Amino acid sequence: MMIRDSAPPVFGLMLVVFLTFGSGCTIVRHDDEQENEDGGISIYFDTGEFDAAVYVDSMWNERVLPRIREKAVEADTLFGMLKEKPDTAIEKYGYRIEITAPFNFMVSGAAKVVSVNTESAASTISLDLTGPDGKPVEIQIGPVIKGTAVRDSMDFINFDDFTNQLEFANVSRELNNKIKAVVLNDLDREALQGKVVAFLGAFQWVEGKSILITPVELKPEE
Amino acid sequence: MKKTAIIFLLLTFMTVGLWASGDQEAKSEKKGNTIFIITPSHDNPFFKTEAVAADDEATKMGYATTVLSHDDDANLQDQQFDTAIAAGALAIIVDNAGADATIGPVRRAKEAGIPSFLIDREINETGLAVSQIVSNNYQGAVIGAEKFVELMGEKGKFVELVGKESDTNAGIRSKGYHEILDQYPALEMVARQSANWSQTEAYEKMESILQANPDIKGVICGNDTMAMGAMAALKAAGMGDVIVVGFDGSNDVRDSILAGDIKATVLQTCAYNARLAVQQADKYIKTGSTGAPEKQLTDCVLIDSSNAEKLDNFVLEQ
Q1: How far is CA A41 from the centre of its chain?
Q2: Measured torsion, CA atoms of residues A87, A91, A96, A102, in degrees rounded to the nearest 10
Q3: Which chain B residues have a beta carbon less than 8 Å from that of A156?
Q4: Does A48 contact B at CB distance below 8 Å?
Q5: Residue A119 in contact with residue A195, Cβ under 8 Å?
Q6: Coil, strand or helix at B161
């Protein structure tokens, strides 16, 4: 009886070990361990069956970038329209995942960097480009990236396709991690001041609030 | 020989019994005009608001209602689903008692032809409930934590009070908080304890945490009742200027924010979600479809001194 009771977990563990090391990719389950280290509080709900990093890896180049490149609206046009005719802009270019959420937009352009703001870990650059609220448009340069604008601009990423909101949230986290790794890591932050940058990205729009773009491409012009 | 006969007789009775009860259920299904509304305890104003809003919406639409509380007890919820099934309910609106424990009863209801509409908390399975109108607790925790980080100036010692560990939302909120907090190396968590959603427990836990950590700068809490408890303990210790952030958007915390004590909370639009669930149930009853995807997220709203005035009973005036 004792042996039979303990057999399934051992088998399960072997399976996990096999899957982890046998498949050639590393599945990092840091969430659970981290929670357990914090005063022994164990968190219920996370099934751990879904690997958001693998999911994001599999579609970053194939679906995310192509979709933003295809759908992005030129910055001057978009911000002008959001100021003059927001309803038209929303109808033409806006996307939201649910009726209580703000709309998201995809945008592209090139503008001069007027300031590099690094006093917060959620650093930004301010552009020589005016948003619909009359204030300078900003781009996030990390290391902390706020919000879920990139995930929520993708019409092929639906909450309905995930087991629960943790999985859905992890997709956004991994998209932001991807941005840190491929867009922001090699960025020479100090050299940005005064330079013209070409950008491609997404933002969440709330009327009257400043525009904060999450970039998927950000390149200082030579 | 005798034994076989008895078993045969028993089997015959059982089959007839099943047949009969199945028939009865089928009949009563057609009879009902009642929507069942099942939520956690109404002692918590959040769940009371949810139940009252659903009840009001359903009554307005001409349905009879049965309003029940499962008190976060999965067994009690099981019985209540059975009651609804036996009564031939038209629909069940439920803020459930557990992401896994609720899968069974929702499936039983579905098999009996009764649709379930989940509000607030989701279950780990799709294709059983017709709608899962889920409060985006994760997004709410993220905006709460972002405000907390801002108030803390991105650095300093803090404490986290976690809700009941078995509760889905306790886990989601804590994860959402840490998603943000862990990105700031100068923020140091000196204690993380569960106060089980309780004000008294939060007071006691906070009191003892303060003895070991008299230099904390902030406390982030998984709900408003714990925030109220923590604030009371801090004030009793002469540390009323410590930054406290809650979650739910209760009137108590609203008043505390307006008094300058607690700094912020996060509102879930529970009344809106409950009414939306009833509207979808109505549409489903009449047309066989809600026209919406099963899983629907509704965003939370940050409440601080700038908008606390407009908050009343979990509804933010526009």
Answers
A1: 28
A2: -10
A3: none
A4: no
A5: no
A6: strand
Measured from the Cβ of residue B60, the count of other Cβ atoms closer than 10 Å reads 10
- How much of chain A, in percent, has pLDDT values that exceed 70? 79
Contact list in B for residue A104 (CB cut-off 8 A) is none
Contact assessment for residue B265 and residue B244, using Cβ atoms and an 8 Å cutoff: no
Peptide bond into B293 cis (omega under 30): no
Q: Residue B104: CB partners within 8 Å, gap ≥ 6?
A: B78
Rounded to an integer, what distance in angstroms lies between the CA atom of residue B244 and that of residue B228?
9
Is-contact A43 A35, C-beta < 8 A?
A: yes
Give the type of residue at B56: D
pLDDT digits (tens, 9 = 90+) for A53-102: 999 999 999 999 999 999 999 999 999 999 999 999 999 999 998 777 89
Residue B212, Cβ density class (10 Å: 0-12 exposed, 13-18 middle, ≥19 buried): exposed
In whole angstroms, give the CA distance from residue B137 to residue A46. 14
Q: Which residues of A touch B175 (CB under 8 A)?
A: 31, 35, 43, 46, 166, 169
Q: Give the Å distances, CA to CA, from B245 to A9, B141, B261, B270.
A: 40, 10, 10, 19
Q: What is the mean pLDDT of residues A25-34?
A: 39
Return the sign of the alpha-carbon dihedral for residues B40, B133, B127, B92. positive
Pairing status of strand B64-69 against strand B116-120: unpaired
Interface of B with A in 158-217 (CB under 8 A): 162, 165-168, 170-172, 174-176, 178-180, 183-184, 189, 191-194
Q: pLDDT-derived band of residue A43, with 50, 70 and 90 as boundaries?
A: low
Which pLDDT does position A46 carry in this prediction?
61
DSSP code, position A43: P
Q: Taking CB atoms and an 8 Å cutoff, what residues of chain A touch B138? A: 165-166, 168-169
- Residues of chain B with pLDDT below 50 are 1-30
